[in-house]
């Protein structure tokens, strides 16, 4: 979805400081820097038990 938005926006989406530029960078980085299984299990357990509220990151 981010890639499609970048195609619509064009070159302006690559300007530093643009929301799409940051989203694209984050999506690309996530493919290489995935959290470990233990961290994912801990976060999911805390969320299910209501011990942590996940914040919206971009909105």
UniProtKB/TrEMBL annotation:
InterPro entries documented for this protein: Acyl-CoA_DH_C, AcylCo_DH-like_C
UniProt entry keywords in alphabetical sequence: Oxidoreductase
Stretches assigned to the Acyl-CoA dehydrogenase C-terminal domain: 2-34
GO molecular function, one term: oxidoreductase activity, acting on the CH-CH group of donors
Superkingdom classification of source: Bacteria
Protein name: Acyl-CoA/acyl-ACP dehydrogenase
Organism: Paenibacillus sp. SYP-B3998
């Amino acid at each position: 979805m981010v890639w499609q938005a970048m195609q619509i926006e064009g070159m302006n989406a690559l300007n530093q400081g643009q929301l799409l530029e940051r989203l694209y960078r984050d999506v690309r980085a996530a493919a290489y820097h995935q959290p470990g299984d233990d961290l994912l299990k801990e976060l999911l357990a805390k969320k299910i038990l209501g011990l942590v509220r996940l914040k919206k990151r971009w909105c």
